[in-house]
Design a protein that fits this description.
The protein is mostly helical and 93 residues long. The chain folds into two domains: 50 residues, no CATH class; 34 residues, no CATH class. It has five helices and no strands. The N and C termini lie far apart (81 Å).
Length: 93
């Protein structure tokens, strides 16, 4: 009797890594666009690579970090809290 150690194979392992990476990327994108990380995590886990594509084309919210600081967060710029405070002051006046 032989013991099978590598039963799933390398291809299945790479597919698992791609699935997990897409969940991480979709979670990060949705958090940057102002929808929270849980929404992106669910989309990335359920839709795999399509979830990443969905959040790349999904529009960002008005005071999200994506709109205020850019896609990769190039320092400087306002924070989300500062932008919301300015908007409330403008709406209140």
């Amino acid at each position: 009797m032989t013991v099978v150690i590598a039963a799933i194979g390398a291809k299945a392992l790479y597919l698992l890594y791609a699935w997990l990476a897409s969940a991480i990327i979709a979670s990060w994108l949705s958090d940057r666009k102002g929808y929270g990380p849980k929404v992106g995590l669910a989309a990335g886990l359920l839709l795999s690579v399509v979830g990443v594509i969905v959040f790349l084309i999904w529009p960002a919210r008005r005071d999200s970090r994506w709109k205020l600081q850019g896609p990769f967060g190039k320092g400087g710029g306002k924070t989300v809290a500062e932008a919301r405070a300015e908007r409330e002051v403008e709406e209140g006046s």
